[in-house]
């Protein structure tokens, strides 16, 4: 039995130096784009401040925005706002995903739950969640509960669809394969259904994260006393354009951090997908 | 006792009517026997295998293994699929260790068993690779090792080499024979290749339009020589049965 030596050529060499240099080139050109954007913004703002084509208050420069950040920090409220938004989003998003995944598995597995929930979701789901915020506030008050409910709800509704889709697309051959290896229902779930539904669940999470952020900002704009959305509304009342830009930028940064965490988890979780995706079609 | 199939019939709905796929299939096979089910595509051979595996149940008739009625999939009947059906999120070793783990064995014990069967199919080097990194032949060897790791009473193979190129196919056939000579598990092997069946089988079931047209015991010594006169005459006999069918349809 000396067969298959040729077949044993593994993909050990896939991470050699040329890949690293192209990766480095990529990240370099990305950084230049971002730096260029801020430089251009700064220059236009400064030119405008000099010639006064329009009121310079309307367009604060990046330096002004940094100044606003320092000012808020001195007042001791900058991190309060950031932290309020972060934990609201974190809790609401995770809660929404967990509830959606549990419901989706019940919908896919239990006919009764499917018949009970699916029509309801079809009727209520199309209503933009933000339209429900005033109702939530009347029901639950202006405190954290109504805000968390909105974020959780806005996350859960689309996540259910992604997860159900993922579960329904499990390859039946793999289920057969597990059954004939002697797996019981729980083992089939753990070893086959969950791992094959995870990639679509993560696609859903990436898409839904944007919706959760919108929900967070909207919730903080109405009836809140902290958070980045509140900072925008509060600054509008006092015409502090630099604060508004700062809050918007911080929301962007926060989103990027959450997205980065998601893609980090994805990379750890889906090592097995290496070499099975479009970018792997041709390697140089 | 072995595997006993008695008067098994099965039909599937197709269009407006129902299409019979298997009609009164009856055969027996002993433990340690290598059975090949030979036939054209669509003759019902895969359906028969799926029913022995427990993925479908017969409309009529009985199927028993060692006197016990087949009732759903079970680890005593290991299956090797044509599309290999390995779990892409587990490494080669984890795939093979899965059966013993399902049986409640500890992680270490399962890994020990997996390593033993990985060695049996000559794939120790690939233990920590993922299925997507393997060639077709390697995947199929992992599939065989995975099914064997449960020490099944019957190994069911549904055209396991059907998706492989002809060179790999031949080496895989030899390897399978070596493994089988070593373990002597009962094998039910579905194929449409006459030569493959004559090379491998103790018993060849020729299927024609859902019926067993011929049940032939093969007594040639192994390894079999494809140029041996008895080998050639058996190939002739089988192809005349199969081609006769083709002329009729």
Question: Could you describe the 3D structure shown?
Answer:
The complex is a heterodimer of chains A (284) and B (249). Helices cover 75% and strands 0% of the residues of chain A. By secondary structure, chain A is mostly helical. In chain A, α6 (144-168) packs antiparallel against α8. Chain B is 37% helix and 27% strand. Chain B contains seven helices and ten strands. Chain B has helices at residues 45-53, 92-102, 107-120, 136-148, 166-183, 194-200, 229-248; strands at 3-14, 17-29, 34-38, 60-65, 68-69, 77-80, 154-158, 186-191, 203-208, 211-217. In chain B, the strands form two sheets. A six-stranded mixed beta sheet of chain B has the order 6-7-8-3-9-10, sandwiched between helices. In chain B, strands 2-1-4-5 form a four-stranded antiparallel beta sheet, covered by helices on one side. In chain B, a hairpin with a 2-residue loop joins β1 and β2. In chain B, α2 runs parallel beside α4 (136-148). The longest helix of chain B is centred in the last third of the chain and has 20 residues, at 229-248. At the A-B interface, α7 and α8 of A face β6, α2, α4 and α5 of B.
């Amino acid at each position: 039995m000396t067969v298959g030596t040729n077949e044993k050529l593994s993909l050990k060499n896939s991470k050699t130096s040329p890949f690293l240099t192209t990766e480095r080139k990529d990240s370099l050109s990305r950084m230049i784009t971002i730096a260029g954007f801020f430089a251009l913004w700064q220059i236009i703002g400064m030119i405008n401040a000099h010639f006064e084509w329009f009121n310079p208050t309307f367009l604060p420069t990046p330096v002004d925005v940094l100044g606003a950040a320092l000012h808020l920090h001195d007042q001791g409220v900058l991190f309060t706002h950031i932290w309020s938004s972060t934990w609201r989003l974190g809790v609401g998003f995770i809660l929404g995903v967990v509830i959606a995944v549990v419901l989706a598995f019940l919908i896919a597995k239990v006919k009764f739950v499917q018949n009970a929930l699916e029509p309801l979701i079809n009727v209520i789901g199309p209503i933009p969640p933000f339209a429900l915020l005033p109702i939530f506030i009347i029901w639950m008050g202006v405190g954290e509960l109504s805000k968390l409910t909105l974020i959780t709800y806005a996350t859960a509704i689309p996540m259910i669809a992604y997860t159900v889709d993922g579960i329904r697309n499990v390859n039946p051959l793999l289920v057969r394969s597990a059954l004939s290896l002697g797996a019981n229902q729980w083992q089939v779930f753990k070893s086959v259904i969950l791992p094959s539904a995870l990639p679509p669940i993560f696609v859903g999470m990436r898409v839904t994260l944007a919706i959760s952020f919108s929900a967070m900002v909207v919730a903080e704009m109405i009836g809140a006393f902290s958070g980045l959305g509140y900072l925008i509304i509060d600054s509008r009342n006092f015409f502090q354009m630099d604060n508004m830009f700062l809050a918007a930028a911080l929301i962007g940064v926060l989103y990027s951090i959450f997205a980065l965490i998601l893609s980090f988890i994805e990379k750890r979780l889906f090592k097995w997908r290496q070499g099975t995706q479009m970018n792997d079609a041709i390697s140089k | 006792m072995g595997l006993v199939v008695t008067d098994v019939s099965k039909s599937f709905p197709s269009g407006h009517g129902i299409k019979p796929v298997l009609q009164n299939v009856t055969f027996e096979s002993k433990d340690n026997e290598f059975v090949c089910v030979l036939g054209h595509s669509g003759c019902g051979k895969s359906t028969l295998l799926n029913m022995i595996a427990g993925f479908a149940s017969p409309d009529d008739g009985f199927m028993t293994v060692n006197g016990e009625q087949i009732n759903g999939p079970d680890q005593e009947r290991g299956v090797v699929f044509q599309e290999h059906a390995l779990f892409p999120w587990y490494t080669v070793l984890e795939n093979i260790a899965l059966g013993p783990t399902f049986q409640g064995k500890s992680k270490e014990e399962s890994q020990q068993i997996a390593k033993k069967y990985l060695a049996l199919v000559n794939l120790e080097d690939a233990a920590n690779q993922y299925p997507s990194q393997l060639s077709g032949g390697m995947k199929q060897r992992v599939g065989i090792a995975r099914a064997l790791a449960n020490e099944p009473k019957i190994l069911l193979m549904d055209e396991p080499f059907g998706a492989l190129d002809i060179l790999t196919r031949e080496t895989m056939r030899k390897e399978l024979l070596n493994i089988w000579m070593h373990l002597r598990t009962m094998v039910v092997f579905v194929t449409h290749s006459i030569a493959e069946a004559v090379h491998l089988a103790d018993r060849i079931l020729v299927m024609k339009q859902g019926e067993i047209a011929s049940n032939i015991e093969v007594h040639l010594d192994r390894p079999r020589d494809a140029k041996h006169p008895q080998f050639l005459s058996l190939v002739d006999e089988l192809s005349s049965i199969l081609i006769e069918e083709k002329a009729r349809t």
